[in-house]
Amino acid sequence: MNHPDPTPPRRTSAVADDALGTHDTVGLVEAIQAREVGVVEVVEAAITRVQAVASRLGAMAYTAYDRARVEARDPRGGFFAGVPTVVKDNVDVAGMPTRDGTDAWTPRPARADGDFARMYLATGLVPLGKSQLSEHGFSATAEHPRLGPVRSPWSFDHVAGASSAGAAALVASGALPIAHANDGGGSIRIPAAVNGLVGLKPTRGRLAQDKQLREMPVRIVSDGVLTRSVRDTAAFLREAEMVYRPLSMPPIGDVTRPGPKRLRVALNTSGVEHGASPEVAELTLATAALLESLGHQVEEVDPPVPPGFRDDFLQYWATLAFFLVRTGRRAHGPSYDPSRLDDLTHGLARHAGRRLHRLPGVVRRLRRAAALSEDFHRRYDVTLTPTLGAVTPRVGHLDPTQPYETVIDRLERWVCFTPLHNVTGAPAVSLPLATSAEGLPVGMMLGAGAGHEALLLGLALELEEARPFPVLTVP
User: Under a CB-based contact definition with an 8 Å cutoff, are residues 384 and 433 in contact?
Assistant: First the structure.
């Protein structure tokens, strides 16, 4: 799919000698609390950094810099008080429009925060605006025919992954230390893998969620964050738990050090229908060897995939497109123009429309996957797979203006590991533990049983300590 380029990749970094410095999120909080830097100068530095790279990366969907400046003068309380961030543009934030990665309608500012944004911002984070995503989050790359592509700061020639593309590009470039992301088929983990970030998809129901997502027949979407360090992700989940605590699962608590237990690790590189490329498979085996060197027991096994999972997930995913297309005018008013939706959205809607009679069986079978996962994790503590089936594609490889059949085949070959966790509801995290021959990040994914984010975070801290994550530098 990709071929090594003899010329160095064109990269960008927003890191500057300013109040943000090279801090991760926790480091920035410590600097603010020690009064080494002030919130106003931190937010102003973040605005300057975002302005410097956002247009080149295609990362921002909406900017709210003046609002951020006002909040910086009187930040709300919370551990992250004054830390700049962005919210993905498929979640409502009061006073900001929600465009959902498309220009098929003219959005109005939201009247109130959605349930997730209310929880997210209650931790003290200051939003500079909203980040770009693929149209309705359907594609694993954001390459809109009119809004343009979101590019990786590691290489302008390559995509930033999706659907949380803009969020990942901004965090990876150093413009922001933390950003909101959400994940219905890998959309936290995919851009984390592409951009050298930590991306943890929490257990279903772990965090507050907007109403329309809670009402899905199979709740495949989870919200979370993208960060540059494991401790940042752990700190966010700890603080979110103080705002919203689901009593149906064990608390995560304050995970600050590697877990002491040596774990049973189930290794797989065969994926669902399609497996890892030779390069990615080799990198995954190297990660397995690292785990073994740390004392963990690794065994290669088949994943707990229900029969027909690939077809069932595609049908369910496509049905979301079908209903979004059919209900667009009612949801968005007379400005809604379905002819402006991209070809992937329309192709998914057609796919679902021809098979709607199968939906009850699809939902029933997908719901059974949670029980398979629970049984599997009685035997294995964690799973290890690559996050994606191949290295990062170049801009254009998944361009949605191509024929639907071409794009969906390429998507399924690339995204062949992440959807299972969305269906089972179990947590999974992508860590930047490998690098491709082209010098680009390659994510490795660890999964655990439902409710066991603390286990994943402890192992992730151990791996980060053993193999420090790559840092984006620009020649």
Answer: no
Q: In terms of residues, how long is the chain?
A: 475
Q: Do 427 and 447 form a contact (C-beta atoms < 8 A)?
A: yes
Of 13, 88, 152, 164, which is the active-site residue? 88
How many whole angstroms separate alpha carbon 183 and alpha carbon 91?
12
- Contact between 38 and 8 under an 8 Å Cβ cutoff? The reply is no
d(CA 189, CA 91): 18
88 catalytic? Reply is yes
Selecting among 13, 131, 152, 163, the annotated active-site residue is 163
* Cα–Cα distance measured from residue 12 to residue 75, given in angstroms and rounded to the nearest whole number: 30
Burial class (CB in 10 A: 0-12, 13-18, 19+), 307: exposed
pTM score of the predicted model: 0.96
Nearest to 178 by CA among 161, 195, 194, 198: 198
User: Residues 6 or more apart from 344 whose CB is under 8 A from it?
Assistant: 135, 138, 139, 400, 404, 407, 408
Q: Tally the C-alpha atoms within 13 A of residue 274's C-alpha that lie toward its C-beta.
A: 21
Q: What is the CATH number of domain 26-466?
A: 3.90.1300.10
330 Cβ neighbours under 8 A, 6+ residues apart? none
Q: Domain residue spans in the chain?
A: 26-466
- In Å, the largest CA–CA distance within the chain is 62
163 is catalytic: yes
Q: Among this protein's residues, is 430 annotated catalytic?
A: no
In order along its 475 residues, the chain shows pLDDT tens digits of: 444 444 666 999 999 999 999 999 999 999 999 999 999 999 999 999 999 999 999 999 999 999 999 999 999 999 999 999 999 999 999 999 999 999 999 999 999 999 999 999 999 999 999 999 999 999 999 999 999 999 999 999 999 999 999 999 999 999 999 999 999 999 999 999 999 999 999 999 999 999 999 999 999 999 999 999 999 999 999 999 999 999 999 999 999 999 999 999 999 999 988 999 999 999 999 999 999 999 999 999 998 898 899 999 999 999 999 999 999 999 999 999 999 999 999 999 999 999 999 999 999 999 999 999 999 999 999 999 999 999 999 999 999 999 999 999 999 999 999 999 999 999 999 999 999 999 999 999 999 999 999 999 999 999 999 999 999 988 6
Catalytic pick from 13, 139, 152, 187?
187
